[in-house]
Design goal:
By secondary structure, the chain is of the alpha+beta class. The protein has 17 helices and 32 strands.
């Protein structure tokens, strides 16, 4: 870059100002819940819509797992204005992103809905040009035990193997005066107990962590000017419900309805009630509104991507922003945002007519975590700077770690945490995927499942995320180091254990681990040295050593020895081109994933930032010419071809696939993608789109930061993203030129590589 251009960067830096996200607006009401708009904060998500003149919204909260590990909603609220003349012309529903609330304007009345980011409280504020009255109803479809119907088991841990006569047990709901209190109470015995017995872990049951036994969750809805008006029976989207109704006792220009929620694991219901009351007592509406809006303002300040021009770039950056808002609604959850809908699922009838179950339904479970999908929800938070949102996911692995380590010790007698794919929130395999018809003598530590057998390496991506938060933000990750070390120890000890059972030596002739039997994702089965596993072990071990030494811990000889034992990423030659191989060998192909490109992402060993251009050429050959990679290519669901294209600097491919990923979804709210391979809203669809867009704009390796490595020349963009070393980079790119560049801290400017 010429010196005059560098000078222009300094002079034009003042042009880069913080971007305030534009409001998202509808000017007509919705037909049903599938046309809902998200709203939330803290760990609460709400689907909000206006149908036939009534405001309705579902309330969801992170961590509300029932006895079968279904993630239950807290109920539905319906608001009806008593004067029909107030409903009609001038309708406007707005998602006010910058301040994090949802506003509905009708003729003469405005309704504002928001969630407190610091405590689990929902606020509904109604304001009119003149005094008015209204009716609010709390609606619950779990007013009686509900038998789990055929096919409905997909919402819980039993999936297709639901025990006979299983039911979703009823909630307790009681209304009086101006309030209704509702809660679901899990019994002491849950699916956890079934899984422990099924998987031969009864001998250590007292040492296993159980997050769902005696779990109580629910809340209280009330308003100062409300009076109880009785119950009604109704039906919505094919599901019957009971409504507890309240009417405004007298007309007023302003009304407020509050919903306080509380979740607690306790056998003592009085303890839960006391915890709920403490939440209620802590509410200070004006202060809480101010603090919550300040949190959202800071959220948008730390990063953004926007395009000032109409067209594809504007569409995908807007949808990126809307999706990031949805992720922000669980910033303070104790449990992670689920890949299969997060906090924003709606009646399944409008996703798949064949699965017309209750609003609690989602495919692939509530407390079950499919890590291969879940990882895509969280990788993008590094570049967006949303480090405070990552503990919800990382801490989940910490909670599961003791149980995962006990698995290894009970089954094989060695150390290290064994984390399977399709894992429950208590660290044991999903019981249906574990297999209900297992042959006698089959390894009890192994899932009897053609897709999941030997797939143990997905935990390493979450280990890497933890390590990256240190590299990006200088976060204190000491509590995560035992997780990283345990995950690595499992691979080291288990594969030496397996080799020793096959023969005399625990390592191959070169002193390397023999990662067999293994799995290249769910696709290349009975694999030997799968590329995805090898790249994971190399990268995480290397990063662990770097982090330890950066923190003054020089006792890394053990981990350096492990690094020396990890085999090389396998390669092969096809049609005269050298490529990354899926594995050294494999016995069958079972799915449509492409583990031969995992050394590109998530492991970043072969990218446009690679110092060795030969590695980049090999990776590009793999992307462009590997027959399976081409056959599996799509932008659907959890597919990550768009990310690989961006990481490899293949601009046209990255733009095409990311454009497809982040185009408007099939529902009214454009970031409600899916169902893809999973459910709607498909959060791993959105997450992979988010990551790909970020990689098109900024990539980093070591101290180097490259901007616009895969960005189309004709797309204008303004962005602020994070890079390692506590660095933020803000760029305004217009008309094919970088108009301004701000790097913070300024000392990092020389590390930036211009397009």
């Amino acid at each position: 870059m010429k010196r005059i251009s560098i000078l222009l960067f300094f002079l034009s830096a003042v042009l880069c100002v913080s971007a305030q996200p534009a409001d998202y607006v509808w000017t007509t009401p919705s037909r049903d819940a599938s046309e809902s708009m998200p709203c939330g904060g803290g760990d609460i998500g709400m689907n909000v819509w206006v149908e036939d003149g009534e405001l309705l919204f579902y309330v969801s909260r992170s961590g509300t797992f029932d006895e079968h590990n279904t993630l239950l909603k807290q109920g539905r609220v319906r608001v009806t204005l008593d004067d029909p003349s107030l409903v009609g012309e001038g309708f406007r529903q707005t998602l006010c992103l910058h301040d994090g609330y949802n506003e509905v304007r009708m003729k003469g009345v405005t309704l504002c809905l928001w969630a407190d980011v610091s405590r689990p409280v929902v606020h509904l504020e109604l304001a009119g040009e003149k005094p008015f009255t209204y009716t609010v109803a709390y609606e619950n479809w779990r007013y009686a035990d509900r038998p789990i119907r055929k096919g409905e088991g997909q919402q819980c841990s039993y999936k297709w193997a639901v025990p006979k006569n299983a039911v979703t047990t009823r909630d307790s709901v009681a209304a009086r005066g101006n309030e209704v209190v509702f809660f679901h109470r899990n019994p002491a015995r849950t699916v956890f107990d079934y899984v422990v017995a099924q998987q031969g872990m009864d001998g250590v049951k007292s040492r296993l962590t159980n997050p769902i036994g005696n779990l109580v969750f629910g809340g209280r809805l009330w308003g100062e000017n409300l009076a109880y008006a009785g119950t009604l029976q109704g039906e919505y989207a094919g599901t019957d419900y009971r409504a507890w109704r309240f009417r405004a006792a007298k007309p007023a220009r302003r009304h407020e309805v509050l919903i306080a929620l509380h979740t607690q694991q306790t056998p003592d219901l009085a303890a839960w009630q006391e915890g709920l009351q403490q939440t209620v007592a802590s509410i200070r509406t004006d202060r809480d509104r101010r603090d919550s809006r300040a949190w959202w303002n800071a959220f948008w300040e730390r990063s953004f991507i926007e395009s000032p021009t109409a067209g594809k770039a504007s569409e995908i950056t807007r949808n990126y922003t809307l999706f990031r808002y949805m992720l922000g609604c669980n910033a303070r959850g104790a449990w992670p945002t689920k890949f299969n809908g997060g906090l924003f699922t709606f009646d399944p009838l409008w996703v798949d007519k064949a699965q017309a179950f209750t609003p609690d339904y989602r495919k692939w479970g509530g407390g079950t975590m499919t890590a291969q999908n879940q990882r895509l929800v969280y990788w993008g938070m590094l570049k967006s700077g949303d480090f405070d949102m990552m503990p919800a996911q990382l801490d989940t692995y910490l909670r599961m770690l003791p149980n995962a380590e006990l698995r290894s010790m009970v089954y094989w007698g060695h150390a290290g945490g064994c984390f399977c794919e399709q894992i429950e929130n208590f660290g044991l395999p999903n019981p249906a995927e574990y297999g209900t018809k297992r042959p006698a003598g089959f390894d009890p530590g192994l899932e009897y499942n053609a897709w999941l057998e030997y797939e143990w390496d997905t935990v390493l991506e979450f280990c890497q995320m933890a390590l990256e938060t240190y590299r990006y933000d200088g976060a204190d990750i000491r509590r995560y180091i035992p997780l990283v070390e345990s995950a690595l120890t499992f691979f080291d000890q288990h594969y030496q254990y397996l080799a020793s059972r096959r023969g005399r030596n625990a390592l191959d002739g070169d002193g390397k681990l023999v990662l067999f039997p293994g799995s290249g994702c769910e696709t290349y089965k009975m694999a030997n040295n799968a590329a995805s596993t090898v790249a994971a072990l190399q990268t995480v071990t290397r990063m662990l050593i770097e982090v330890k030494e950066a923190q003054g811990d020089t006792a890394t000889a053990h981990w350096r020895a492990l690094l020396a034992r990890i085999p090389d990423v396998p390669r092969r030659v096809l049609d005269g081109r050298e490529m990354i191989a899926p594995a050294r060998t494999w016995e069958r192909i079972n799915n449509v994933e492409t583990p031969q490109l995992y050394p590109v992402f998530p492991w970043r060993m072969y990218t446009v930032m690679s110092a060795d251009t030969t590695n980049l050429a090999v990776a590009r050959n793999t992307y462009l010419h590997d027959p399976d990679a081409l056959r599996f290519r799509t932008s659907k669901g959890w597919k990550q071809d768009n990310i690989w294209a961006a990481c490899l600097g293949l601009t046209d491919e990255a733009a095409r696939l990311t454009g497809e990923k982040l185009s408007d979804g099939p529902h009214r709210f454009p970031a409600f993608w899916g169902p893809g391979y999973d459910w709607t809203p498909d959060h791993n669809w959105g997450g992979s789109g988010m990551i790909g867009l970020q990689e098109m704009l900024l990539q980093a390796e070591g101290d180097r930061i490259r901007i616009l490595p895969a960005w189309p020349r004709e797309w204008d963009v303004h962005f602020r993203l994070h890079a390692p070393g506590g660095t933020t980079v803000e760029v305004r790119y217009e008309g094919g030129e970088v108009k301004s560049l701000i790097v913070t801290p300024e000392a990092r400017r020389d590390d930036v590589i211009l397009p």
